[in-house]
Amino acid sequence: MDYFLLRAVVDEINAHTAGCRVRDIVMPEWHQLFMVLSNQRVLAFSALASPNYLALAPQGHPITGVDRDYPFGRILRHSLKGAYLLKAALFGVGERLVRLTFGTVNEGRKQKFHLVFEVMGRHSNLFFLSEAKEILAVLKENSDLSTARPLLNGSSYSPPPSSNRAWPEHGTDFSDLPQAKKSIAFPPYLIEYFHRFPDEFPPFMQAIEAKHYQCVRHEFGTREFYSVVPLTHAAIQEYFTSPSALLLQEKQRERSGWMVQRDKLVRRIDELIARERERIVEFTAEKEKRQNYHDLLKQAELLKAHLYVPIVENSVHCVDYATNTTMDIPIPPDTTPTEYMNALFIRARKDRTALFHLAAQIAKREERLATLEQEQYHLRWAQGMEEVVATREWLLGQKTLPKKGKRNQNKGISRIKRLEVEGYEVAVGLSSRANDEVTLSARPDDWWFHAKDIPGSHVVIRAHNRAEPPENVLFTVAAIAAYYSRASDATKVEVDATRRKYVRKVAGAATGLVYYTHQRNFIISAEAMQNVPSLTLC
Questions:
Q1: What are the pLDDT digits (tens) for 351-371?
Q2: Domain assignment of residue 176, yes or no
Q3: Which residue segment(s) compose the domain that 31 sits in?
Q4: Minimal CA–CA distance to 223: which of 180, 193, 254, 266?
């Protein structure tokens, strides 16, 4: 979402919602917020990397999902329900920061609050501020005081560092294309366009200043992009009634886009799983062939003890005094018994060494297969392109992985779902790495759950320094483990539960692979699993 589109949306909000009251606030997902206004319009926010937008939805716009009672949404409802939306404003020219100002009257005392939306891709965030710019709530907290901008409740809000890019004044500012891309605060597609057609820059800016928006989807060369003002030399593919209509349609396209990428990754993992299984079959067959190295070694030892025996009909008659049996060992033509004995010793030694390496390869392939199956299953819970890309980079070793010594940009993506069951916090891992994090961060007395002999999530009840969870809580959490397993469509699922202190991870084991003892067993029905989606998120 570029600056011009955001500016057009802000103008649209001011034109259609000034003085409207907030009727309700709904957060169906942690990154998604809907604000229902008194004129039946809906302000829609998405702080996910993709889609990432602020839009004013039309009357009757459906809100997908039910409110999950997230803490951020709870605070907004408590403070802003019934408040008046006074105005929307941008922080500065070229900056993608929006401030929505609300006014309330509480016991005759007027108050103002601000909702700040930082539209910055995967770093997008929502802040709820007091009139004095004190942070009352933040969607994505950052408690690391060593960072440039810690984001903590109670601290003063400070905008993110400016990009320090220049704002062009003339079409000639785009003449040096490489320099313009580095220094001008315009989207790349507009920089390229005004580089070729500098005379169109003044009318474009005049239309922006006059708020003469006409949103279109352009095709220019091999690039497709959106613009709030039509460009003369770019082919128009589609018109939109408003900036928000453009964004809401783009949201659907982006959502479909990451789903296509997810399905593509699932198919790629299918190919890798089939390849790993083929390799395991090949290694197993090769291992079976080399199991007879003991027989080769025995023949070589017998030949060594009977080198003095003459060859009769191309074989050496040997006596095995350990078993009191005889054996005729054939000698290949043009080969002496000594040469054949040495060849047998070499073959036996090679087969014995190969058995060791084949066993290691089979174990490695089986671990890899388990990881692939686990991640393929967990992809069904992915919520956006960011998670799909992170999984692809980690699992398949794509070239998009950060170079050695550079910070992993996907390191901060958390695939852990947190639920609340009768006051107990429950952590659910939604990837192999998240499973390790959930399990290894648990306390010894916490309860640990996993579907028996089936790929699925590690689930932990945070029970440290708490009363022993009652039986109905344990059963509900077992149902969660069954629901987040590959057997979630089965009529019944067996789930093992044990204390975290009885769960062990062997050094060098695959990510997400653990061993456990002292388990008890739960049988979970399909009816019990149906109640899991309605549980409250922490």
A1: 999 999 999 999 889 888 888
A2: yes
A3: 3-138
A4: 193
